[in-house]
Amino acid sequence: MPKVIADEHVETKAEIEGKEALESSGVFGASWRIVLFRAVRDNDMALVKRVCESHPAAIHEHFTSGMQEWQLSWDSLRWYEFADATALYIASAYCSDNVVEWLLQNGVDPDAVCYSKQVALDVIGQCTYDREKASRIDKLLKQPRTPPQPPVQPTLFAKIGYEDHLKTVYDEVVNPEDPDGPKMRKARRVTETVVRCKVSATYKSYWLPPKTNYELRLREIKGTEWKIERTQATHKIMTGLKPDTTYEVQVRAKNVAGWSDFSEVVHISTPVGKKQPGEEGKEGEKEAKTEETPEEKETREAADRKKRRKASIL
Fold first, then answer.
1. Whether pLDDT at 132 is above 70
2. φ, ψ of residue 206 in degrees (nearest 5)
3. pTM for the structure as a whole
4. What structural domains does the chain harbor?
5. Is the dihedral of CA 102, 103, 107, 109 positive or negative?
6. How far apart are CA 278 and CA 192, in angstroms?
7. Rounded to the nearest 5°, which phi and psi values hold at 182?
8. Separation CA 33–CA 14 (nearest Å)
9. Which of 245, 157, 162, 156 is nearest to 197 (CA)?
10. Where are the coiled-coil regions (predicted)?
11. Which of 89-93, 113-117, 196-200, 236-240 has the lowest mean pLDDT?
12. 160 CB contacts (<8 Å, ≥6 apart)?
């Protein structure tokens, strides 16, 4: 039986030149969704992997929801079916068997619902049909799911950062209207620079979906007690560090199969001491209005009344 081709896409010269320019530059910018759509449609595994290196979560998401209608209609006659689609759904519709296999190997959900409540299995070959590839995709999508492996060991980058904090300090000053009376409290705002540790983690694993759990741990070098933080972000700010101290930091990732190994240890050292409030010409200081306690206010008002009585007698 001969192959039946429907909705076959023939690349124009402009598209070929644009694709070559993208591949040579390695920069996709805001158009990465268009590049990924075309790469999945054309079964271009090399380009799919390159886009996913910069946008690893895209293989799990309905990434075309961020595309305009004219962008989709330019690349597919059945663009309306891909207005809210996953990479697996598109690959199945265009018989991109290599992309389907790679996506499934990387933990993509084959039951993700797209256009008209359909999944990838429902649309095999609807846009481009190849009997051999369609049969292979059908087997891939129907095969029993293999238990996922724990995430690969992540890579961690850590650095020391600084952060300015405003705080209020109170000075005791002489009351100009009653020099012999109790002193007043005058408030002022000062800037204090504190040491911060910003831990930025990069995970070289395509299939870690959004909201993956990560665990970062930090301790003084040769210490025994770890400070542990868990997050679903790929970066975390850990505070409360001591000056002139060396710390070691590690991170690991988790999926349904369990935790990965911890990353290699990264050492970071905090500087000696901290900037004192008011240093360097008291930069950052801001005078605030005078604040009094109730007792001080009562004393000042009594002194004012006494002065007014004396003035009225004279």
1. yes
2. -65, -35
3. 0.51
4. 13-142 (1.25.40.20), 155-287 (2.60.40.10)
5. negative
6. 8
7. -65, 150
8. 18
9. 162
10. none
11. 196-200
12. 195, 196, 197, 198, 241, 268, 269, 270, 271
